Write the structure tokens for this entry.
Amino acid sequence: MWKTILRRFLVMIPQLFILSLIVFIMAKQMPGDPFTGLITPETDANRIAELREEAGLNDPIVVQYYNWISGVVQGDLGKSYTYKRSVSSIIGERAYNTFLLSLLSAILVYLIAIPLGVLAGRYQNSFLDKSIVLYSFLSYAIPTFVLSLIFLFLFGYQFEWFPTSGTVDVSLEPGTMDYYWSKFYHILLPSITFALLGTTSIIQYLRTEIIDASGQDYVKTARSKGIPMRKVYSRHIFRNSLLPIAAFFGFTITGLLGGSIFIETVFGYPGMGQLFVQSIQSRDYSVITALVMLFGFLTLLGSLLSDIIMSIVDPRIRID
Amino acid sequence: MSGANELLEIKNLSTSFRIKDDFFPAVDDVSLTLKKNEILAIVGESGCGKSTLATSIVGLHNPNNTKVTGEINYKGKNLVTMTDEQFNNVRGADIGFIFQDPLSALNPLMKIEQQIEESLIYHTKLAKAERQARVLQLLEQVGIPNPPRVAQQFPHQLSGGMRQRVMIAIALACKPPIIIADEPTTALDVTIQAQILDLLKELQAETESGIILITHDLGVVAEVADRVAVMYAGQVIEEAPVVELFRNPKHPYTRSLLNSIPQMNSEGDKLNVIHGIVPSLKNLPRTGCRFSPRIPWIDRATHEDNPTLHEVAPDHFVRCTCWKTFHFEDEGGSVQ
Ligand SMILES: Nc1ncnc2c1ncn2[C@@H]1O[C@H](COP(=O)(O)OP(=O)(O)OP(=O)(O)O)[C@@H](O)[C@H]1O
Ligand code: SF4
Ligand SMILES: [Mg+2]
């Protein structure tokens, strides 16, 4: 198992290399550079040119790529032109915020999707099932930013139930109970918004799995043993249906990262998603490329995680 | 047909499936009796309703699209009218069921021990340790080498024959007086088939239980059965003790089935095959004898409209009277 995991990590290297090339070229293709924003009628054109030269923007593209990638390999993601700080330190504090938001979102997604998927599958074609399926289609059709804006407007500004931006009430002493509660309070509304929209695939998948598993021969065997129907469900149908859902876990990570871009921007939450949008606006290449590389890495990690989980929960699958 | 030896009495049992808005019987007015200490074989072509009959006996049909009528009397109670909860006290405890394909019939995520133990949890008062001991004893009984090891394995780690032995152990767990085996050897290799049949026969003698053995293989019937019921299109068309049936088959369908077994064929080189297939539920002629379309060369006047079972010799029943005028040999021994 450890060997396979190591091998999978090695395979990631060429994948990440190709990603780095694409990311770098795309970033270079974007119109303007970090200094474009500094130009005003009074700016000395020579000064700008000097700055460009200093930043290495006039070097041949191959050299620029080499300088960048050799830094990345050593953990140096470069310096942000906007923040005048190292990219790693900026991403570092944002990553923590996004991690908290994603964690709560993921928990809520599973808390909502698993019971609904199970109920829809067990009571197939009932009114309950039809309502759940309708909800799952609606949640799929509604764009994240639309619902985010509606919720922010209603529960943030109208009813004032939730804070409308930030990660914590700054007046609170870090480390106190109130401080942590405030942190939780700040991610609650964005997480709920996200979770409500992120359940579609799990509900649909689980529903199909339950219906499918119910017709399997091993369920007939279980029934022929004369055990109560509720036990047939819990011991045989649910366990077997939840299996593919466990594999979904890794991919949920990817979905959360994608969604965080909208959610964080709308809710003014300083995480990686918001950082991504801001750095595109300010043409902060080093941050953009670092973030895309990180998202790419996490996606690959997510799929590896799925495979590992699968091999743990399903005795038929062994990765060795 | 009643006596102290009677285990299970099936009376006028019909099981109909809903296709669109109508119900079509796949088992049509079947009456059979299973006695203590015997193996009753049910034979017939694919689609004649054998599995439907078997699953009706353990109440596994979905009431939303299936209608079961008639009686299945066990210990003075009619299983057909029981609720699912009441039926749970009978399934597993009094009737053990062995399915055809042990790979799909075993839960891939559960250890063998858990799967055998399950019915013990609900039908006995055995403590955990006692149940585990019983599981090992059962595995031993069905001829599995190294029971402690196999108990901790998953189905995919066992061979087909071993899985079917596990399946048998599951059926035997609560020592049920009745066992139903639906084509227990069809999914297995020929050599393994013989072993499993021997095991079933041995276990039957040991436990004195009554077994309903479903098969489409008359070789299997000849080897293990005491009595045989031949089914065609949802009906029993002939029923007799095994020796009587093989020596003195009456119904043209039974005769052609027997003629289609190589070793039974006197000529040896010529194999008589049955042409055509069992009509589907919807296309089945409901008036007139269901079998008549398959022997079109017989004079129409010879056929009966709705033949009922007649006793033609002690314990030998045939759903036909025209067999008296029907000269099978003259027709070349084959049915089209
Ligand atoms: N759930 C169902 N709904 C509708 N029709 C069914 C259903 N199950 C079985 N049938 C039909 O009922 C008839 C009898 O099927 P059954 O499975 O009992 O046959 P069988 O004798 O066991 O055949 P085999 O040897 O292939 O196992 C067939 O025509 C089949 O198509
Ligand atoms: S009535 Fe005719 S078709 Fe029907 S069983 Fe008798 S001989 Fe066969
Ligand atoms: Mg069958």
Observations:
- The pocket of adenosine-5'-triphosphate (ligand 1) is lined by residues B 17, 26, 44, 46-52, 216, 280-281 (CB under 6 Å).
- The interface with chain B takes residues 216-218, 220-229, 231, 235-236, 239-240, 243, 314-316 of chain A (CB under 8 Å).
- Chain A has a mean pLDDT of 85.
